[in-house]
Structures are given as C-alpha cells and as structure tokens.
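Supplementary material to the annual report.
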Amino acid sequence: MKLLEQKIMAEGKVYPGDVLKVSSFLNHKLDVDFLCQVGEEFYQLFKDCDVNKILTIEASGIGVACLTAHFFHCPVLFAKKAKTTNLSDNVYSAKAHSYTHNTDSIIRVDKDYLAASDRVLILDDFLANGAALTALIELCNQAGATVVGCGAVIEKVYQNGGNRLRAKGIRVESLARIASMSPEDGIKFC
Ligand code: 5GP
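Predicted assembly:
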C-alpha cells in the first residue's frame, strides 16, 4: 500500500532492537481516516472469504481491527493479555512472547465469543517473528474455528515470522513489507 509506505517514511522512526515506531498514526495516536483506508485494503483482500469475525490482540491491534470490521460488518474480538476480573475462567488461552516487552504472557478469549462456526480474519499492527499471530491462530484452533487468513499492517519480512506461517499453509497478507531497517540506513521496502 503506497500511501502506507509514504506515511512510514515520513513519520516512522527506527529504534535499536529492530523496533519501528509509528506512534503518530498506528500505535499511540491513531489516524482514523488513514486507518479506515487500511481497513478497506484488508477488506478488498479478504472480502470473498466469508469472514464473520475479526480477532486481534490488545492493545495496538484493536484500532485497525475495528476499522476493518466496519467494512465487513462483523464483530471484533480481542485477546486479553491480563486475567482481569471481568474475564471468566471459561477461556481459550495460549502463550505469546511479546516482541516489544520481551516477556511471555498468556492471552485469553472467552469461549462464549469464539465458535467452531466462525470464519476468522486475524489482524495485527506488526508482524515480526510471528509469535502474536501464532498464539491467535492457536486460540482459533482450540475453538475449532476456521482461520481464513492473517493480516498485518506492517511486516518486517527479514524477521521471517510471516514466511514461517505461509510455509504452514496459512494465508498471510501485509500492507507494507519491510526488507531491512536500521537507525543508520533507514527503511527499505521489498
Ligand atoms: P511478533 O509476535 O510477530 O514477533 O511481533 C508482533 C507484535 O509485536 C505486534 O503485536 C506488535 O505490537 C509488536 N511489534 C513487533 N515489532 C514491532 C515494531 O517494530 N514496532 C512496534 N511498534 N511494535 C512491534
């Protein structure tokens, strides 16, 4: 998505540790008009897949998931990272390693909200090593739901998580594909 690449070049900052900061439109302040266009792009890619639910992980996936769901007219379910009092014990759960916090956490969704009849599009803001998407796929597998595919706004292709998932036969689409990045040399797209 050309506009996304332009926005990343204009507003993104590369931090040590392979972290791209795009807090001005995706991760902290949300550019809703722009994210609507991102949502429409995901809709165009997956519109023939009979998606009836979008699954993401809190927090940064939620905005883009909602703006995509607007086009599919379907609900968004987001996996929770903390076991809060308003979440019952009736959950599907999976372990996920957090890329940005470098910690492991258990992500959970209420069993009432994910069913074997669901056709799920999994979305997230970034795809790096693939841990977050893998954990979300695991939740769908536990429910017996069908994963029609995964979408990432930004894929750091050189970290290979996307290609590992594709090698398992999972459809993975990303809207900006970064071939390399470093604070010294900047960002290069595929
Ligand atoms: P993965 O699980 O694929 O290794 O990493 C994806 C998750 O880590 C995403 O949910 C995202 O929040 C976070 N993440 C990975 N790489 C980056 C990055 O370069 N920048 C930001 N802001 N988040 C990232």
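Residues 2-82+90-189 form a domain with the Rossmann fold fold (CATH 3.40.50.2020).
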